[in-house]
TrEMBL record:
The keyword Nucleotidyltransferase does not apply. One of its GO terms (biological process) is negative regulation of DNA-templated transcription. It comes from the Bacteria. One of its GO terms (molecular function) is DNA-binding transcription factor activity. SUPFAM superfamilies: Chorismate lyase-like, Winged helix' DNA-binding domain. Residues 4-71 form the HTH gntR-type domain. Signal peptide: none annotated. It comes from Nonomuraea deserti. InterPro entries: Bact_HTH_transcr_reg, Chorismate_lyase_/UTRA_dom_sf, Tscrpt_reg_HTH_GntR, UTRA, WH-like_DNA-bd_sf, WH_DNA-bd_sf. Keywords: DNA-binding, Transcription, Transcription regulation. The keyword Transcription applies. This is GntR family transcriptional regulator.
Length: 238
């Protein structure tokens, strides 16, 4: 049996403490306290805490410390990952309900983002995304028509990115804009919230390793169950 590393031991201990003894927004012990208590290096402490940040268990406030994330809310750091990866990282079960899968002419904004001529055929995929069977996100995605066959074969696959990767267009990086909005009556019914409920609107254009635009997506996330966490630092003048 492989011996547990110091990083793994510390991370497991912190998870147990967070789950059993700490309340949302409680501060984690300082780096120095963790180093002394567990007899590990500063690098090991930082590695363990960074893993907890990526998993959404804790969040950082620059200059103040690291704090326990509110339970019941999915916190996403600004790293490139799919909805499926985010939910699995939080030990929840991702799911999708396919609402639409059809080839249609690209509207001007979709064509622009996918570097196509307006009216070019694209595949429109509309899905309701869930975590532990609870509605979390309403997603509209458009991809070039060349991936239509792959999407038809993978219509039961939770992750669109897995389908694109299998088709030789693995998502590599993305540009996205996050804004505040409210849902309309149809969106509210699908998400299980009242009309005009607040939501996060995430507009994303995804590229593969060759720089091709392979997806344009607009996702509406329930604001009561999803947030984005950003770590920032003040720039110092030289």
């Amino acid at each position: 049996m492989t011996q547990e590393t110091k990083y793994e031991t510390l991370r497991r201990a912190l998870v147990e403490i967070i789950d059993s003894r700490m309340a949302p927004h409680d501060p984690l012990p300082s780096e120095r306290e963790l180093m002394q208590q567990y007899g590990v290096s500063r690098m090991t402490v930082r590695q363990a805490v960074e893993g907890l940040v990526r998993d959404g268990r804790v969040y950082r406030i620059q200059g103040s410390g690291t704090f326990v994330t509110e339970r019941g809310k999915i916190t996403k750091s600004l790293t490139f990952s799919s909805f499926t990866e985010d939910i699995r990282a939080r030990r929840m079960t991702p799911g999708s309900k396919l609402l639409l899968l059809e080839v249609q002419p690209a509207e001007i904004d979709v064509a622009r983002d996918l570097f196509l001529e307006p009216g070019s055929p694209v595949v429109h995929v509309r899905r309701l995304r869930t975590a532990d069977s609870e509605p979390m996100c309403l997603e509209n995605a458009w991809v070039p028509e060349e991936f239509a066959a792959a999407l038809a074969r993978g219509r039961d696959v939770d992750s669109l990115y897995d389908v694109l990767e299998a088709a030789g267009a693995a998502p590599e990086h993305a540009d996205q804009i996050i804004s505040a909005t409210v849902v309309n009556r149809e969106q509210a019914e699908l998400l299980g919230v009242p009309n005009n409920f607040p939501a996060l609107r995430v507009s994303r254009v995804t590229h593969d390793a060759r720089g091709r635009a392979v997806e344009r997506a607009i996702s509406l996330y329930r604001a009561d169950r999803y947030d984005y966490r950003v770590s920032i630092a003040r720039s110092r003048k030289k």
